[in-house]
Design the sequence.
């Protein structure tokens, strides 16, 4: 005799659960924060901060890495039109080399928050690192998949950075920035070996520093 077991399906993930918890605890203006560009060998690290209207649901908004470029572009426009406020912070390669990528990412996140109007009274931050702000904040591992506000910020940061790297491809031809966006692809590494680093390469990063005249 075969025993059949009835399984209960899990409820769908509520990507506003962290925002709702903040409102329940008396906060009124919640911003989600995420970054793009920690890993590349070239270009800036970018962060975005997004305040969404209370209770707003945005279909298909998710971790930007899970979305196609076309979908990210469409959602970028939707988020920009629906958000209460959007801030973007950018830290360039020279500063990344000076203070390291972790501190540069935190600085970019802080700059993004400082651009918001109104200023938020609570921050939801993707990852495990807080920022140097007196605003109460919560870090969330994989927050770009768990919080709608953080997911929206991840899309803004990613699209903004990708657009910038396409511009850099015209300014510094030969490296293929419009394709790999500065990440360490085989073609990119080969270009660095042949051409040497460009002014937007991160000279302290492996794959670049070996070819720097300053080493």
Sequence:
């Amino acid at each position: 005799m075969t025993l059949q077991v009835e399984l209960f399906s899990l409820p769908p993930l509520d990507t506003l659960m962290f925002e709702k918890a903040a409102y329940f605890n008396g906060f009124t203006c919640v911003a989600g924060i995420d970054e793009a560009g920690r890993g590349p060998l070239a270009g800036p690290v970018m962060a975005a901060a997004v305040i969404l209207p209370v209770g707003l649901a945005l279909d298909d908004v998710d971790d930007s890495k899970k979305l196609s470029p076309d979908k990210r572009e469409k959602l970028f426009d939707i988020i920009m039109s629906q958000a209460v406020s959007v801030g973007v912070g950018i830290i360039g390669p020279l500063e990344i080399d000076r203070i390291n990528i972790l501190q540069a990412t935190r600085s970019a996140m802080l700059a993004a928050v400082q651009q918001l109007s109104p200023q938020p009274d609570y921050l939801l931050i993707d990852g495990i690192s807080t920022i140097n702000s007196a605003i109460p904040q919560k870090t969330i591992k994989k927050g770009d998949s768990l919080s709608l506000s953080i997911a929206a910020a991840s899309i803004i940061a990613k699209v903004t950075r990708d657009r910038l790297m396409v511009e850099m491809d015209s300014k510094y031809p030969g490296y293929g920035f419009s394709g790999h966006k500065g990440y360490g692809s085989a073609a990119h590494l080969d270009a660095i070996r042949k051409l040497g680093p460009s002014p937007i390469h991160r000279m302290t990063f492996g794959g670049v520093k070996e070819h720097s005249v300053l080493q």
